[in-house]
Each structure stands twice: as structure tokens, then as C-alpha cells.
Design a protein that fits this description.
Blueprint lengths: L1 E5 L3 H9 L5 E3 L2 H7 L3 H11 L4 E4 L5 H12 L5 E6 L2 H12 L4 E6 L2 H9 L4 E4 L1 H6 L4 H15 L4 E4 L5 H10 L3 E4 L1 H8 L2 H16 L5
Helix pairs in contact: 1-3, 4-5, 6-8, 8-9
Bound molecules: erythose-4-phosphate.
């Protein structure tokens, strides 16, 4: 499973890239607001750091507007993927952008039926939001499991990008189900490295290393 960073912070993307473990980035208007800079400038910088897919989100509500925004985003860099929402207009835009050779990430997906429509519209990626489903008392990962089953049944090539990830358990569950990608906040990425036994083990090895006789 690939790991993407869910951020519009260029610093976080840079740090993530340095680990050699991050293969893409997802952004959205909320993350762009948090970054507090011109969205296009941020996307351009991120695309110069990360060579894999970088998702840029449209904000129009009609297909025409989404296509226009998507075409403009696609000119920023060749690894841009255009995000459109799971609506009728979003699916019309997805079909049109896909026909133009522009990759689309269908976002705000909360059911397997929505993911089916996205795949039928030619989406490159589909983003089920697990955390937001958990927030309302549903089991977000169940939707990911269902999407995986539906896509496997019909050999859809649309990639399942697990989004709205809140903790390492989401990452593990996504990997167990066989999702293609999990996009994670930087804080969750950091947590993936950590284990108290790893820290304790390093401490003990360093202490014992001091006791090893060394030639002068
Ligand atoms: C990424 O593509 C999504 O926009 C993001 O993961 C949503 O996360 P949130 O539910 O924590 O806002």
C-alpha cells in the first residue's frame, strides 16, 4: 500500500519526502486555508518535491466550472490529479476530464455505491472518508471493504485512496483490506514509526554497547 501525505504544508511534504516513504500528496480547501498561501503556488512547490500524484481540489458546483478548474490545475505540473466531489455534476466533470487525459480523484465518498459510480465515470482514484464516517457512528472501514469487493468483482482499475485518516489503526486496517493508498496527516505518519519497545531496545543496546571492550 502506498502512503500519501494529506497536507498543503510544503514543509511537511519536504520532511515526508526525505524519508523516501511518501509517494503522493492530497490537499483540499481546508488544508489550503491552513497553509495560508496562494493555492496554485503551494501545488507547484509540492509537485516539484513529490513526483507521484498530487491532488488539487476544485470548488465549483457545476461540471463546466470543475472542468475549467481541472484543466487549469493540470497545467501546473504533470503529476496533478484533479479532485471533484461525488455529485452528478462531479461525475459529469470526471468523465470529461478523463476523456481529456486528466486524472481525477473523486472525493467525499461515503458509500460503495458512490465508489461504483466514480469507477464507472473513469475515476483514477476514489477517496472514501473513513474518519468522518466514524465520527457519525458508522464504521468507515466497512465502506472501504465493500469498495474493494465491488472493484475486485468487476476489475475496476480505479485506485482506492483511504482518506480522512485519523490514527495508525486506520492505516493498518486499510492495508489489511488491500486499499491501494492511505493518505495520512503528518502527525499520523510520524506515529507509524513509533513503538515504545523500539525506543527501549535502542536505549538498552546503546547502554550495552558502552560495556563492550574497545581497542584503544
Ligand atoms: C483528502 O483527500 C481528504 O480531503 C482528507 O483526508 C479529509 O480529511 P478530514 O476528514 O480529516 O478533513
Amino acid at each position: 500500500m502506498e502512503l500519501f501525505l494529506d497536507t498543503a504544508s510544503v514543509d511537511e511534504v519536504r520532511h515526508g519526502a526525505e524519508t523516501g516513504l511518501i509517494s503522493g500528496v492530497t490537499t483540499n480547501p481546508t488544508l489550503a486555508a491552513k497553509a495560508g498561501r496562494d493555492y496554485n503556488d503551494v501545488l507547484k512547490e509540492i509537485c516539484s518535491i513529490i513526483k507521484g500524484p498530487v491532488s488539487a481540489e476544485t470548488v465549483s458546483l457545476d461540471a463546466e466550472g470543475m472542468v475549467k478548474e481541472g484543466v487549469a490545475f493540470s497545467k501546473i505540473a504533470k503529476n496533478i490529479v484533479v479532485k471533484v466531489p461525488m455529485t452528478v455534476e462531479g461525475m459529469r466533470a470526471c468523465q470529461r476530464l478523463t476523456k481529456k487525459g486528466i486524472k481525477v480523484n473523486v472525493t467525499l465518498v461515503f458509500s460503495a455505491n458512490q465508489a461504483l459510480l466514480a469507477a464507472k465515470s473513469g475515476a483514477f482514484m476514489v477517496s472514501p472518508f473513513v474518519g468522518r464516517l466514524d465520527d457519525i457512528g458508522k464504521i468507515g472501514m466497512e465502506v472501504v471493504r465493500e469498495i474493494k469487493q465491488v472493484y475486485d468483482n468487476y476489475k475496476f482499475t480505479t485506485q482506492i485512496l483511504v482518506a480522512s485518516v485519523r490514527n495508525p489503526i486506520h492505516v493498518l486496517d486499510a492495508a489489511k483490506i488491500g486499499a491501494d493508498i492511505a493518505t495520512v496527516p503528518y502527525s499520523v505518519f510520524e506515529q507509524l514509526f513509533k513503538h515504545t519497545l523500539t525506543d527501549a531496545g535502542i536505549k538498552k543496546f546503546l547502554e550495552d554497547w558502552e560495556k563492550v571492550p574497545k581497542k584503544k
